[in-house]
Each structure stands twice: as C-alpha cells, then as structure tokens.
Amino acid sequence: MEDQTQFKFFIVDDDIFCANVYEQYLANLNYTDITYFSNGNDCLNNLDQNPDIIFLDHNMEDLTGFEVLRKIKRYNPNIYVVMVSAQENVKTAVDALKYGAFDYIIKDFAVCDNMTRVINKISQVKTELSKSNQTIIKRFLNMF
Fold this sequence. Notes:
Blueprint: E1 8-12, H1 16-28, E2 33-37, H2 40-45, E3 53-57, H3 65-75, E4 80-85, H4 90-98, E5 103-106, H5 111-142
Parallel strand pairs: 1-2, 1-3, 3-4, 4-5
C-alpha cells in the first residue's frame, strides 16, 4: 500500500478481544491514529475529534449500533461508519445501510480482509469526491 491515505479511526465495540484484533490489524497496515471506545456513549462524546472512519459494533449494551449510527450521522454525515456484526442477517445489513452506514461487515474469519476492502473503497470514494469538487469549483470560477 504505497502512498496510503492516513485516516483517523474509531473502533467502537464492547468486546475487548475483537477491538484489540481490529486495532492491531490496522496498526499492522501502518495506520497510527486509532482510538478505541468500549461503548457508544464514549464514541459520541468524542466525535469532536473528527474521525474519518468508525468501525461500529452492532450489538452493544448501552446503546445499540443503530442508535449510535443515527447520532453520528446527525453530528456529521461525512463520517464513514462501517457496521460490524456477528449477525449474518440481511435485514440488519439493509437497516445499517438505510441508517447511513457506508458498509456492513460480518464478524467472521474474513473480518480483517473485509476491513481492508472497505478502507480501500473509502479511499477511492474520497479521491473521486475530491476530483469532483475540484471540477465543480473550476466550473464555478469560470462563470466569473
């Protein structure tokens, strides 16, 4: 991964083992700005740190992943939230996307590979959006 975009990550999961696996995996990919929260409230209280990507557990004790997702999107719709769940339920995945998640990852043997796939997809989206914004700005400036 040459010339990799550095992202600020939040990992929100009440399962410390899973969170540690994700954090170590991201660190092995040379990402350095990773913050872990064991519950949704702590994540919400720290959104002012402006994370780029949040890996959010679906099933947590204090607030459900859906509740946290909705509040994140109200705070800043440009944060890429990836719902992570052990549930292989299509309705859960569809609801996550409906509420604004960028993607839905199942906690299985391929969870880390899927994290990489999603990060690469987000990187591509951000690149395309910046190209689009530059084109729009150029068109706007050419009007004058």
